[in-house]
Amino acid sequence: MALTTEEVDICNQALGKFGAKRFTFGDVTSTPSVLCLLHYPQTRDALLRSYQWRFAKDRSALSTNGTPEFEWDYQFALPDDFLMMRSIYENRFSEENLRSYALEGNLLLTNENSMQIRYIKKVTDTTEFDPLFTEVLILTLAIKLVIPLTGGGSGGLNMEEKLRKELKILIRDVRALDGQESNTTGQDNLETWNDARYA
């Protein structure tokens, strides 16, 4: 599958971080385009899983999907865009009433007859990205691309190290900003939401 115009723009910003040749939309044969097509989807999804980005948060009341072979009483289909569990909803929060579960493939297995979850979803539309997520994605792609496109010489290695330092600073800033914007009394932090400790 070819990259969209917006995805090409992100890849070209990554290439520009170390002065590599850029490519245009529709180019599927040049080395930069082939490498970007290889790395972009996996890098995007890995970054979505690595942090609880607000734009990727979602919730769902799951639907039952058959019966497990053993061990659990019920199984539920996870949403099609599911990437990572955040928490499950508890009507009454207590240590004795935590809803245990297991994730297997695209199913959630449990002994509960209903299940409501909060999760990180797969977001492919770049217009939905947080600007800071886009910056992290650009730098992470640049780190993956710099050695293949510049070679393993000292110049490429030095540039990779520079990019890693830049990414480290950016991630620190993202976490600091997230801490400032966190809603410590809002719905996301009510005790009726059980952390995804069983995932």
3D architecture notes:
There is one protein chain. The longest helix has 28 residues, at about 155-180. This protein has four helices and eight strands. The two termini are about 30 Å apart. About 40% of the residues lie in helices and about 20% in strands. A four-stranded antiparallel β-sheet has the order 1-7-4-8, with helices on one face. A four-stranded antiparallel β-sheet has the order 2-3-6-5, with no helix packed on it. It has two domains: about 5-55 and about 125-180, no CATH class; about 55-120 and about 190-195, no CATH class. It has about 200 residues and is α+β, with helices and mostly antiparallel strands. A hairpin with a 2-residue loop joins β5 (about 100-105) and β6 (about 105-110).
Number of domains: 2
Biggest beta-sheet profile: 4 strands, antiparallel
Mean pLDDT: 87
User: Based on helices, strands and strand pairing, what is the structural class?
Assistant: alpha+beta
The run of helices and strands is HHEEEEEEEHHE
The number of helical elements comes to 4
Query: Spatial order of the strands in the main sheet?
Result: 1-7-4-8
In terms of DSSP E residues, the strand content is 15-25%
User: What overall geometry do the principal axes of the alpha carbons give?
Assistant: elongated
Summarize the amount of helix as a percent range. 40-55%
Low-confidence stretches: 92-97, 184-199
Q: What Rg, in angstroms, do the CA atoms define?
A: 20 Å
- Secondary structure: number of strands: 8
C-alpha termini separation: 31 Å
